[in-house]
Amino acid sequence: MKKVIDLRSDTVTKPSEAMRKAMYEAEVGDDVFKEDPTVNELEDYAAELLGKEAALFVMSGVMGNQICLHVNGKPGDEVICDINSHIFYYENGSPAILSGLQLFPVYTTNGFLTPENVIPVIRPIEAYYMPRTKILTVENTHNRAGGRIYSVEAIKLLKEVAVKHNLTMHLDGARIWNAAVESNRDVREFTSYFDTVTACLSKGLGAPVGSVIAGSKEFIKEAFRVRKSFGGGTRQIGIVAAAGLYALKNNIPRLAEDHKNARNFANLLAQNKFIEINPLEVETNIVMFGVNSRENLDFIKIFAGEGVRLLPGTNGKIRAITHMDVTPDDVLTAAKIISDKVNEINSK
Ligand SMILES: Cc1ncc(COP(=O)(O)O)c(C=O)c1O
Q: Which residue has the higher pLDDT, 2 or 97?
């Protein structure tokens, strides 16, 4: 049977033998009473890695972001995010549903907020008839921008704006590990500018479930309460946290392999004149490409028929994500399959 190469997302990974063993052997207790030793260890370990006073294990990246927004703002407050951010695009309008928050999605051409595009949308303090701008969110790496990295320097400039205007900074760091590994910097260099952070364990790090949020002790105390309100208080969840702990201890440096695979994939696709791609824009594990053809075809379906699974990307492009369950050879095979099929279609 032909092998299916699944490049839809880095969330499709299955836990490795070693990770499953860690889960099997995990000591557990009731986490709602804070008595699960594995969860407690994960939270302490994550807080230290992220350079924050405390951390909290949550079920998903969305849950993490939404708890952070809920704690950081109150109904009627406004949250600045970029128009392609996950919080605006893919979280079901939850800031409105769960927290009465209004999002202010800033139009950016490349997904990056800067002082130039943020300052004009901050509401004047004296305007009693406008919402209060309260939270500034940054997504790093940026999913819909093709896994691109906000540099520490770019974040620093935003922090100056946030301090000046009394805004809380939240990092949607679902893939902050990728940003840190690729930039060869400690993850704390990125997170230090943020009041609150969400970081995922179930993407490139390969855990089956879970994210962590981190911030001050006071913030996490409140977040613990909100997690319960959002239905995220769970019991012997150490069995799952063990996978996240294993992921944090073992799977961060290997993200560099995913980035290399993504670059190789992009470079191969770039050799095909019918494929639109700029390999220089591939900074981490996400690749976006377009296909030119005379007919308007569903290329995602066509490539799936050839055994390569992909998803729609931004602005009509196709998205591929490399991860720990695809090998360097898989990625080269996938690029060849795509390229051959595109040539075949265009030669008709
Ligand atoms: C940037 C970003 N933030 C948040 C999330 C949400 O994570 P989850 O699917 O665990 O809720 C994702 C998921 O893909 C993401 O890419």
A: 97
